[in-house]
């Protein structure tokens, strides 16, 4: 299985990989004049490639918590990703400083390189989410798992069946950056190995992790069969520890990316709830206050509690103080468990689980409050319910036709089938495998924004044409 300990020299690799005719090989060193002049590092280039991608831009119209939200101040996946990246950069910079102080940072790297890698991973962490968030994932999975659709899976290998039956935002995020964006089918964005490693929370395939006791299906994963060969090359470059066939220990910096995400959604989902009136500002204060010196903030008068501008300022101040404390705690725990992490043996599922009780209790209480009061609020539930028929209608129009195309050929399709398949952004090709065709369908549907999916479903249902 190789070395029993990962090394920072390999983990911070700036190697990029490209694909030609299905073969994966290292690309040439970045020839950017910005790198030569010191204006941009390799990790800054990664950052810019993510930010300027179409997939990242589409996050602005994808659900964070509230589908099709009409309040301009609530978060969408884009603003969430930018804020997570800000927290992740702070975490990475702090950890980088501590690694340097402990003599762990390789020569030629700065603490800010560590922060930049985490920032890139945070920016891309939701880039594969489908319309309507986790509800969208469930809707896409349900279509392929419906017993009435079993015949459409005939001819797929078991691993390929698991892929199409388990749309996974994390795996589609890897597909976005490694296959679909920029150099399509030739390495995607060609990000550095370090950034790709930090992006991966679940380093195995849909069929790679054993089913957990008491569960009927596998959990989350980060690679479809399409990106598995690519990540094998990345994992070898990074020196990730092998845990089994096509299973690896996590890149240490992925724990910081995950922590930044956990911190942001635990706190900011509640801030959104105050913004739209699901929670009162005093509930937000009561939850966050014990972790900060609340007496340093001027008390809100009763009129101020009814002034939305003052409420926003109050929530912002509390949020900033709590996030700052969380960053310090997470960085300290990372360094405390550094040796375990480098051996792939962190004694918990994540860093947040190891935080001191006052911080971990606050984050746990925040998630519990969101679960009870925010995620089940009627305004959210109604739109989630509507997401199922919306996405099912689109799949009804595409998957059977893709199956007919692959099994009988384009010449056997009728006019309606040809017209419906013309919706796909990447056309199906003669001789294409059924698995490849389904991945193109999922690329198209999964890449939609909430607005686009809702509008398309309405239009192709025949209702939209009447208006």
Structure explained in plain terms:
It is a single chain. With 467 residues, the chain is mostly helical. 57% of the residues lie in helices and 3% in strands. The protein is built from 21 helices and 4 strands. The protein has helices at residues 8-11, 33-37, 42-51, 54-58, 77-101, 111-124, 133-145, 158-165, 169-180, 193-199, 228-238, 252-275, 281-288, 302-305, 308-336, 338-342, 357-374, 378-408, 415-421, 434-446, 450-460; strands at residues 17-20, 23-26, 242-244, 247-248. The mean pLDDT is 89.
Q: What is the H/E order?
A: HEEHHHHHHHHHHEEHHHHHHHHHH
The residue fraction in helices comes out at 55-70%
Regarding quaternary structure, what we see is single chain
Helices and strands: which structural class?
mainly alpha
Distance between the termini: 63 Å
Uncertain runs are none
**How would you describe the shape?**
globular
Instruction: Note the beta-strand portion.
Output: under 5%
- What is the strand arrangement across the widest sheet? 1-2
Give average pLDDT, whole number: 89
In DSSP terms (H or I, runs of 4 or more residues), the helix count works out at: 21
Total number of beta strands:
4
How much is the radius of gyration in Å? 23 Å
- How is the biggest beta sheet arranged? 2 strands, antiparallel
């Amino acid at each position: 299985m190789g070395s029993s300990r990962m090394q920072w020299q390999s983990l911070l690799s700036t190697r990029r990989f490209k694909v030609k005719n299905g073969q994966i090989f290292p690309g040439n060193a970045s020839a950017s004049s910005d790198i030569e002049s010191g204006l941009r590092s390799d990790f800054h280039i990664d950052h810019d490639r993510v930010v300027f991608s179409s997939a990242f831009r589409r996050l602005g119209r994808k659900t964070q918590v509230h589908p099709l939200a009409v309040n301009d101040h609530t978060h969408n996946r884009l603003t969430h990703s930018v804020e997570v990246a800000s927290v992740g950069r702070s975490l990475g910079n702090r950890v980088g400083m501590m690694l340097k102080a402990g003599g762990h940072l390789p020569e030629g790297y700065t603490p800010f390189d560590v922060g930049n890698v985490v920032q890139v991973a945070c920016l891309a962490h939701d880039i594969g989410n489908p319309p309507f968030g986790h509800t969208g994932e469930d809707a896409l999975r349900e279509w392929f798992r419906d017993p009435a659709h079993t015949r459409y899976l005939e001819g797929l290998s078991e691993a390929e069946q698991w892929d199409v039956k388990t749309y996974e935002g994390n795996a589609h995020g890897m597909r976005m950056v490694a296959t679909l964006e920029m150099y399509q089918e030739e390495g995607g964005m060609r990000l550095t190995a370090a950034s790709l490693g930090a992006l991966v929370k679940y380093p195995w395939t849909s069929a790679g992790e054993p089913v957990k006791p008491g569960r009927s299906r596998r959990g989350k994963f980060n690679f479809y069969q399409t990106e598995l060969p690519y990540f094998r090359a990345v994992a070898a470059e990074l020196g990730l520890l092998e845990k089994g066939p096509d299973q690896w220990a996590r890149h240490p910096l992925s724990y910081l990316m995950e922590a930044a995400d956990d911190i942001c959604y635990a706190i900011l989902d509640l801030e959104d709830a105050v913004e739209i009136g699901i929670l009162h500002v005093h509930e937000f204060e009561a939850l966050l206050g014990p972790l900060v010196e609340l007496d340093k903030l001027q008390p809100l008068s009763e009129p101020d509690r009814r002034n939305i501008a003052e409420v926003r300022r109050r929530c912002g101040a509390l949020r900033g103080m709590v996030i700052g404390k969380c960053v310090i705690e997470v960085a300290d725990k990372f360094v405390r468990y550094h040796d375990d992490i480098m051996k792939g043996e962190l004694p918990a599922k994540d860093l947040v689980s190891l935080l001191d009780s006052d911080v971990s209790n606050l984050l746990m209480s925040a998630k519990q409050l969101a679960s009870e009061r925010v995620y089940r609020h009627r305004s959210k539930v109604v739109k989630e319910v509507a997401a199922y028929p919306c996405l099912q209608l689109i799949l009804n129009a595409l998957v059977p036709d893709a199956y007919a195309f692959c099994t009988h050929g384009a010449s056997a399709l009728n006019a309606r089938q040809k017209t419906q398949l013309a919706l796909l952004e990447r056309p199906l090709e003669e001789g294409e495998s059924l698995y490849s065709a389904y991945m193109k369908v999922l690329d198209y549907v999964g890449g939609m924004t909430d607005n686009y999916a809702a509008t398309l479903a309405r239009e192709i249902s025949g209702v939209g044409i009447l208006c």
